[in-house]
Specification:
alpha/beta, Rossmann fold, elongated
């Protein structure tokens, strides 16, 4: 789930679908849930997802804030995270390690990301680059919001 399908959120979506494909986990475009920037509208979508939860075992949010918000929504409905449903976010914000259960998330090296951004900005100022795309390595931070299951990913 995300509030857009552009730029880095689109890249996160592509990364997710590639990982699911590698793990032979089916994923349909309709599984992507577009979130509203308005909390009341997100609550309506969360209710819809809640009613469809039998079809899903986990959710990936393109940001930790949405993952935490959705986890809180589910807990208020009596859903046990991760016993009944797993949730993962992206960004490893400080709050991710403070909520209960702690949020499994994807962390970026912010120092490296900042350094690259400054370098690209300087290149743009000097007219020496245009439309350059850079991928920053990420790390999975395993915490308490995801239950392990029997799916095993084998890299060849």
């Amino acid at each position: 789930m995300s509030d857009n399908d552009e730029d880095c959120d689109h890249d996160r979506y592509i990364g997710l679908t590639n990982a699911l494909t590698t793990a032979n986990i089916p994923f349909e475009k309709s599984d992507f849930k577009m979130l509203s920037p308005y909390k009341e509208e997100r609550e309506k979508l969360y209710n819809k997802i809640y009613l469809e939860m039998g079809e899903y075992t986990a959710a990936f949010a393109a940001s930790d804030m949405y993952a935490i918000e959705f986890m809180s929504f589910l807990q208020k409905k009596g859903v046990n995270v991760p016993g009944d449903f797993s949730i993962i976010g992206f960004d490893d914000i400080p709050l991710a390690s403070m909520v209960h259960p702690t949020l499994t998330t994807i962390s970026q090296n912010l120092e490296l990301r900042s350094k690259i951004a400054v370098e690209l900005l300087l290149e743009l100022i000097n007219n020496s680059t245009e439309g350059k795309k850079v991928l920053v390595p990420v790390t999975l931070i395993e915490r308490g919001s995801v239950a392990r299951n029997s799916v095993q990913i084998h890299e060849e």
